[in-house]
Amino acid sequence: MSNLREIVRRHVISETKQELSAENVDQDAMVQFLIKEGHIDKKVDSILDAFRDELEKDSPKSIKRKRNKFVYASLSILLTILIAYGVNEEYWVVVAIVALINIVIHAFFTFWSE
Question: Any transmembrane segments, and where (predicted)?
């Protein structure tokens, strides 16, 4: 990844120099200033992030994550409805059991889902 980062960084620097060629400023000094301020690295990071997002958009991992989110949301809604019904009917044992199941599901999808 560092090789790709260096290639993109060189490209961003050359683009910056081209943009600065229209102005009457010292290109090398301005590029060094932008590097020191971190503007070049921010631009490189945004390009690499966009590239990574495009690669991961339809990956199997992304599809699995979307499916897990749907299952998680569905189970959460169902269990919340069961808790509301249990509270309404004053079935406190059912409320406690369903609440524990809901906590386990939240913990699973928060910590172990990947």
Answer: 70-87, 93-112
Token pair 């390009």: residue: 47
Whether the per-residue pLDDT at 22 is higher than 60: the answer is: yes
**25 DSSP assignment:** S
CB 81 within 8 A of CB 94: no
Q: Which amino acid is at 83?
A: I
Phi, psi of 10 (to 5 degrees): -60, -40
Q: Are 88 and 65 in contact (CB under 8 A)?
A: no
For residues 114 and 69, is the Cβ–Cβ distance under 8 A? no
In this model, does residue 1 exceed pLDDT 60?
Answer: no
The full set of domain ranges for the chain reads: 2-56, 60-112
Please give the structure tokens belonging to residue 112.
């172990």
Q: What is this structure's pTM?
A: 0.54
